[in-house]
Amino acid sequence: MPETADRKDDHIRIIEEEDVETAGTGFADIELIHEALPEIHRDEVDTTTTLFGSEVAAPIVIESMTGGHPNTTKINRALAEAAQRTNVAMGVGSQRAGLELDDEELLESYTVVREVAPDAVLYGNIGAAQLLEYDLEAVEEAVEMIDADAMAIHLNFLQEAVQPEGDVDARGCLAEIERVADGLSVPVVVKETGNGISGSTAQRLADAGVDAIDVAGQGGTTWSGIESYRAAAVGDDRREQVGKLFRAWGIPTAVSTLEATAAHDCVIASGGVRSGLDVAKAIALGARAGGLAKPFLRPAGQGADAVTELIETLTLELETAMFVTGSDSIDDLRDTEYVVSGRTKEYLEQRR
């Protein structure tokens, strides 16, 4: 099995078996103001919203996780089937392996998502570093691979720096992102992978014409930690230690969400989002949706029913938060009152 595909399998195994979770999203410091007289009917709370030009039933995104190894086909099938049933958005993992390797079994780990989710909002995924190698036609090939409704360009340079075989040339990526945003046939989302996006970087991306920003802030799965485990497995002690040192590096998700929404109108908050209440808090901070990855992984191994059950639970939690803040729509929730305290308040004050 080629190196890129083996790496995908390593990632899933490590996430399932090792401690790769960090705290510090900032959501614990965000409190929504309770409305004792909501004056709305609980059953009429409307969670529908629009992402990438399509209506979804709830502002919940199954974040990009995997693909590129035959072992991941089952996972992506279950996630996509659940996305189809519940009408939420879903992304696939990096499609680099699908573009560069001539392997039908491997390709199926991506194409399966559209096969089982003909109506769901699906987005593709390619690394910013790979844009230095790919022309627009190659990115369109990634779109066509899953008949994507949007394309995510992921920023994962800390992960690459720790990865023994990492790509650490970040020169010229912004210009390439602008090129793709200008010429691609579908909307372009730029997403981090667990370390957050600052307000100034969000502004640069907005100026480059991207259609959405997924902050993927600090808190939740640590890719630096994952690569530390991989480095240890091949005896690379130096990179193992670097991965540990930067395990909790980044901008907390709540902070990154607030900063990004000041620069761009379409922000997805991910990075340690673990409940429908976290999604509600993210939307109150200005996000359009909240995204989760790791919480879906174990259910995906059990099948589409388990994934569907988790989505329904998250939606119920979100609806409850909307009801007790007097928000009968997602637009209302974006305007609801909140209080910021603790480390997040201090962080924001220092940033301002």
From TrEMBL:
<dbReference type="GO" id="GO:0010181">
    <property type="term" value="F:FMN binding"/>
</dbReference>
<feature type="binding site">
    <location>
        <position position="191"/>
    </location>
    <ligand>
        <name>FMN</name>
    </ligand>
</feature>
<feature type="binding site">
    <location>
        <begin position="272"/>
        <end position="274"/>
    </location>
    <ligand>
        <name>FMN</name>
    </ligand>
</feature>
<dbReference type="GO" id="GO:0004452">
    <property type="term" value="F:isopentenyl-diphosphate delta-isomerase activity"/>
</dbReference>
<dbReference type="GO" id="GO:0000287">
    <property type="term" value="F:magnesium ion binding"/>
</dbReference>
<comment type="similarity">
    <text>Belongs to the IPP isomerase type 2 family.</text>
</comment>
<keyword id="KW-0521">NADP</keyword>
<keyword id="KW-0288">FMN</keyword>
<dbReference type="Pfam" id="PF01070">
    <property type="entry name" value="FMN_dh"/>
</dbReference>
<feature type="binding site">
    <location>
        <begin position="293"/>
        <end position="294"/>
    </location>
    <ligand>
        <name>FMN</name>
    </ligand>
</feature>
<dbReference type="InterPro" id="IPR011179">
    <property type="entry name" value="IPdP_isomerase"/>
</dbReference>
<protein>
    <recommendedName>
        <fullName>Isopentenyl-diphosphate delta-isomerase</fullName>
        <ecNumber>5.3.3.2</ecNumber>
    </recommendedName>
</protein>
<dbReference type="InterPro" id="IPR000262">
    <property type="entry name" value="FMN-dep_DH"/>
</dbReference>
<feature type="binding site">
    <location>
        <position position="125"/>
    </location>
    <ligand>
        <name>FMN</name>
    </ligand>
</feature>
<feature type="binding site">
    <location>
        <position position="160"/>
    </location>
    <ligand>
        <name>Mg(2+)</name>
    </ligand>
</feature>
<feature type="binding site">
    <location>
        <begin position="94"/>
        <end position="96"/>
    </location>
    <ligand>
        <name>substrate</name>
    </ligand>
</feature>
<dbReference type="GO" id="GO:0016491">
    <property type="term" value="F:oxidoreductase activity"/>
</dbReference>
<keyword id="KW-0963">Cytoplasm</keyword>
<feature type="binding site">
    <location>
        <begin position="64"/>
        <end position="66"/>
    </location>
    <ligand>
        <name>FMN</name>
    </ligand>
</feature>
<keyword id="KW-0414">Isoprene biosynthesis</keyword>
<comment type="subunit">
    <text>Homooctamer. Dimer of tetramers.</text>
</comment>
<dbReference type="InterPro" id="IPR013785">
    <property type="entry name" value="Aldolase_TIM"/>
</dbReference>
<feature type="domain" description="FMN-dependent dehydrogenase">
    <location>
        <begin position="22"/>
        <end position="95"/>
    </location>
</feature>
<feature type="binding site">
    <location>
        <position position="159"/>
    </location>
    <ligand>
        <name>substrate</name>
    </ligand>
</feature>
<feature type="binding site">
    <location>
        <position position="94"/>
    </location>
    <ligand>
        <name>FMN</name>
    </ligand>
</feature>
<feature type="domain" description="FMN-dependent dehydrogenase">
    <location>
        <begin position="168"/>
        <end position="335"/>
    </location>
</feature>
<keyword id="KW-0460">Magnesium</keyword>
<comment type="function">
    <text>Involved in the biosynthesis of isoprenoids. Catalyzes the 1,3-allylic rearrangement of the homoallylic substrate isopentenyl (IPP) to its allylic isomer, dimethylallyl diphosphate (DMAPP).</text>
</comment>
<keyword id="KW-0285">Flavoprotein</keyword>
<dbReference type="GO" id="GO:0005737">
    <property type="term" value="C:cytoplasm"/>
</dbReference>
<keyword id="KW-0479">Metal-binding</keyword>
<dbReference type="GO" id="GO:0008299">
    <property type="term" value="P:isoprenoid biosynthetic process"/>
</dbReference>
<keyword id="KW-0413">Isomerase</keyword>
<feature type="binding site">
    <location>
        <position position="221"/>
    </location>
    <ligand>
        <name>FMN</name>
    </ligand>
</feature>
<feature type="binding site">
    <location>
        <begin position="7"/>
        <end position="8"/>
    </location>
    <ligand>
        <name>substrate</name>
    </ligand>
</feature>
<dbReference type="GO" id="GO:0070402">
    <property type="term" value="F:NADPH binding"/>
</dbReference>
